[in-house]
Amino acid sequence: MITAIVFISAAVDRLGAVAEAIAAIPGVSEVYSVTGEIDLIALVRVRSHEAIAAVVADKLNKVDGVVATETHVAFRAYSRHDLEAAFSIGLSDSD
Questions:
Q1: C-beta of residue 76 within 8 angstroms of C-beta of residue 18
Q2: pLDDT, tens only, 4-34
Q3: Alpha carbon distances (Å) from 82 to 9, 32, 42, 57
Q4: Residue 76 has what pLDDT?
């Protein structure tokens, strides 16, 4: 699984509609409204680099109200949640 983090600048008057439209795109797992220089962050989780292009370039960028995007492809995950899940495989709550 490949994860891409997409920073999105959107038209202020369409922010909610843009976020909902992006969240509905297959391959987009989460969309966050954030503070700072950008308006939204979308997490794209797909099986290939070509699929990132299909999601971001062919769909996300074409959502009405998207002004600009910046895409970052993740190399590794260091999430505590992911690490705990990996080490807890096969263990019950009583272990």
A1: no
A2: 999 999 999 999 999 999 999 999 999 999 9
A3: 29, 20, 19, 28
A4: 86
Q: What is the pLDDT of residues 40-73, one digit of tens each?
A: 999 999 999 999 999 999 999 999 999 999 999 9
Listed in sequence order, the residues at least 6 apart from 41 whose beta carbon sits closer than 8 Å to its beta carbon are 5, 6, 7, 8, 31, 32, 34
The DSSP result for 24-41, as a single string, is TSTTEEEEEE-SSS-SEE
**9 to 23, 38, 57, 78: CA distances (angstroms):** 15, 5, 15, 27
Domains (range + CATH), the chain: 2-87 (3.30.70.920)
User: End-to-end CA distance of the chain, in Å?
Assistant: 30
Which pair of tokens denotes residue 3? 């994860």
